[in-house]
Specification:
This protein has helices at residues 38-52, 57-64, 68-75, 83-92, 97-127. It contains five helices and no strands. 50% of the residues lie in helices and 0% in strands. The model is unreliable at 122-136 (pLDDT under 50).
């Protein structure tokens, strides 16, 4: 008899997918839209700003004193960068960390208010009630 663990790992998804057993929803409820990830939003802001300045990835990475492959992964939302790395990348682009985070927060509000209105309208039409939109006027970061 062996005490070794099986060769495969047990994976528990963070978000249930629609195709998995046990994750079905009632037929009258629309699918819940996926909220954007913070790392995707920040990466998008960094990339847009870099491209708007017509600067290369290498140039910004050298100025920020971070590796070019790492900056590329941050821009693509593949890495959760530390606040020090984000501040360095922002400074290399002539932004403060606050500017970078405020732009990402603005994008988050834009994206989530659009999906909120869509899902609230959908829920209201199913429930026969009026939908209200919420306002996001703050910035909250969790480590």
């Amino acid at each position: 008899m062996s005490n070794q663990a099986p060769d495969h790992a047990r994976v528990i998804p963070l978000r249930p997918s629609a195709g998995r057993p046990g994750t079905t929803r009632p037929a009258d409820r629309p699918p819940t839209p996926r909220e954007p990830l913070w790392r995707d939003l920040v990466g998008d802001v960094l990339r847009r700003e870099r491209q708007a300045q017509e600067r290369t990835l290498k140039d910004v990475a050298d100025t920020a004193r971070i590796s070019m492959p790492y900056l590329s992964e941050v821009e693509r939302g593949r890495k959760e960068a530390s606040s020090e790395v984000l501040a360095a990348a922002a400074r290399a682009l002539g932004l403060s960390l606050g500017d970078l985070l405020a732009r990402a927060q603005g994008e988050l509000v834009r994206l989530t208010s659009r999906t909120s209105r869509t899902s609230q309208t959908s829920h209201a039409s199913h429930a026969g009630s009026t939908a209200t939109t919420s306002s996001h006027n703050g910035l909250c970061l969790a480590a």
